[in-house]
Amino acid sequence: MGQGSIHATCVSLEGRGLLIRGPSGSGKSSLALELMARGAGLVSDDRVILERRGAAVIASAPETIRGMIEARGVGLLNARPADPAPLVLVVDLATPESDRLPPHRSTILLGVSLTLLHNTGTSAFPAAILQYLREGRAR
């Protein structure tokens, strides 16, 4: 068992969690807002609690920020909080994706290997992430 808090944002779709990481100002909340507008739920914005449970990493929100997301130039917005969710995917906004069909990448969180995607910078990226959360990636 392990637990920790990290600077990141997390949304979920159908109980499958996506952790969005990157430096301050990289667009974590903006990507989360776009995903929420397309049906994802907000687990946590800015700080995410990660807890290892068996072979899963569960993401949740600190109570002090649960149900809130920052929108630059607008302010703090209320959001219906999603339940804690097991992570299935990590997006790193700090690293640009240059491959059209990238190799499978992974990252380790609390000893668990999770699929890692880099930032494509394309307008279809949010839709592709949601499709990944719904159906996975073809081998």
In summary, what is this structure?
The protein is an alpha+beta fold and 139 residues long. It is 15% helix and 46% strand.
Q: Using the CA coordinates, give the radius of gyration.
A: 14 Å
Q: Pairing-aware structural class of the strands and helices?
A: alpha+beta
From the coordinates shown, what is the CATH architecture? 3-Layer(aba) Sandwich
Unreliable runs: none
CATH superfamily: P-loop containing nucleotide triphosphate hydrolases
Specify the overall morphology: globular
User: How many strand elements?
Assistant: 11
Largest sheet: 9 strands, mixed
Rounded average pLDDT: 96
**Terminal residue distance:** 31 Å
Order of helices and strands: EEEHEEEEEEEEH
Structure, explained:
With about 140 residues, this protein is an alpha+beta fold. The chain has a single domain (about 5-135), classed as 3-Layer(aba) Sandwich (Rossmann fold). It is built from 2 helices and 11 strands; from the N terminus they run βββαββββββββα. The strands form 2 sheets. Strands 1, 2, 3, 4, 5, 6, 9, 10 and 11 form a 9-stranded mixed β-sheet that branches. The radius of gyration is 14 Å and the shape is globular. The protein starts with a strand and ends with a helix. The model has no long low-confidence stretch (mean pLDDT about 95).
Tags for this entry?
two-stranded antiparallel sheet, globular, 46% strand, alpha+beta, transferase, kinase, Hpr_kin/Pase_C, Serine kinase, Rossmann fold, 9-stranded mixed β-sheet, 139 residues, 2 helices
